Write a sequence for this structure.
């Protein structure tokens, strides 16, 4: 990095790319929005003008070849993540790839291998794990604040009938990679990754993408996770963690905004809320990436490669049980 400033590039110009650009612009001067790339030059130019990027590229290749770029944020559809990330890694550019990381574990492992062989930074933008309240949740569990944890129930359903990419198999559509990954991540954060059995059921679209689904996960320690997700209905997007000494209610399974602690008599004994000084919630992953790159690391401590691979393997198994397969596989 030049002058101790992380220069970020963005591949993609959609809503989430805009959210990241807005975030970087609100952060301190250790991070800057340097460039944006789109396969449509006009889109890149409009994005750069709106968010103040220094350079607008009309191809991903041009951005990947720019040696001034320290980290490229990939904000394209799931189906494009592998090719986009591979391009950047092979050119020596660090990568922060939006979730879901790839469409399957095979692709994830291939990208991680390139990262390791070239010594280039690579991370999944699973922002949930980076939230300060995610750290608080981990602390409460380590302190056995609700005794022995026996179960976690979590959900995330959004009516997204108008989002064409989610209904398109060629874009790796379906609810699982888009929103299902969040309740599954909360389950992993609470129960760990030592799974004994997974049972998944769901409703598929006419094109065999998962529209709404549920999974029960049994862990080797005896714990259970009950998860559900979907793209044609609404839910409270909460997680409830049950313990022998009470329970925790987590508001916002994607971006944790509040944790309420209850005793066995349903009395709320503690409430923890997100700090009002937070920007957009994306700043935490950017800071972690910068720290890792400064320290010469190829992954972050909060979201190491092994956690990405675990989640992709779990979602592969769930898709297998649901009967969902992408054309690229």
């Amino acid at each position: 990095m030049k002058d101790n400033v992380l220069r970020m590039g963005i591949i993609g110009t959609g809503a989430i790319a805009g959210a990241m650009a807005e975030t970087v612009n609100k952060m301190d001067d250790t991070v800057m929005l340097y460039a944006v790339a789109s396969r449509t030059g006009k889109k890149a130019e409009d994005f750069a003008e709106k968010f103040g990027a220094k350079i607008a590229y009309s191809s991903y290749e041009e951005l990947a070849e720019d040696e001034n770029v320290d980290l490229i944020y990939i904000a394209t559809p799931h189906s494009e993540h592998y090719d986009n990330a591979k391009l950047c890694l092979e050119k020596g550019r660090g990568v922060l790839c939006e979730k879901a990381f790839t469409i399957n574990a095979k692709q994830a492992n291939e990208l991680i291998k390139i990262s390791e062989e070239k010594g280039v930074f690579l991370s999944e933008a699973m922002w949930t794990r980076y939230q300060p309240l995610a750290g608080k949740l981990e602390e409460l569990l380590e302190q056995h604040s609700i005794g022995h944890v026996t179960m976690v129930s979590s959900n995330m359903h959004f009516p997204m009938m108008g989002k064409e990419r989610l209904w398109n198999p060629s874009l790796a559509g379906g609810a699982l990679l888009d929103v299902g990954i969040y309740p599954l991540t909360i389950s992993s954060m609470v129960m760990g990754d030592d799974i004994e059995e997974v049972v998944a059921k769901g409703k598929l679209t006419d094109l065999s993408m998962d529209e709404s689904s549920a999974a029960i996960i049994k862990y080797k320690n005896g714990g259970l996770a009950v998860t559900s997700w979907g793209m044609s209905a609404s839910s409270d997007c909460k997680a409830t963690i049950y313990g022998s000494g009470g329970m925790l209610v987590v508001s916002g399974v994607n971006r944790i905004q509040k944790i309420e602690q209850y005793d066995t008599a349903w009395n709320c004994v503690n409430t923890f809320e997100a700090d009002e000084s937070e920007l957009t919630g994306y700043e935490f992953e950017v800071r972690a990436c910068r720290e890792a790159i400064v320290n010469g690391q190829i992954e972050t401590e909060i979201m190491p490669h092994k956690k990405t691979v675990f989640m992709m393997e779990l979602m592969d198994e769930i898709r297998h049980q649901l009967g969902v397969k992408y054309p690229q596989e």
Remarks:
- The mean pLDDT is 97.
- The longest helix spans residues 305-322.
- The CA atoms of residues 216 and 266 lie 25 Å apart.
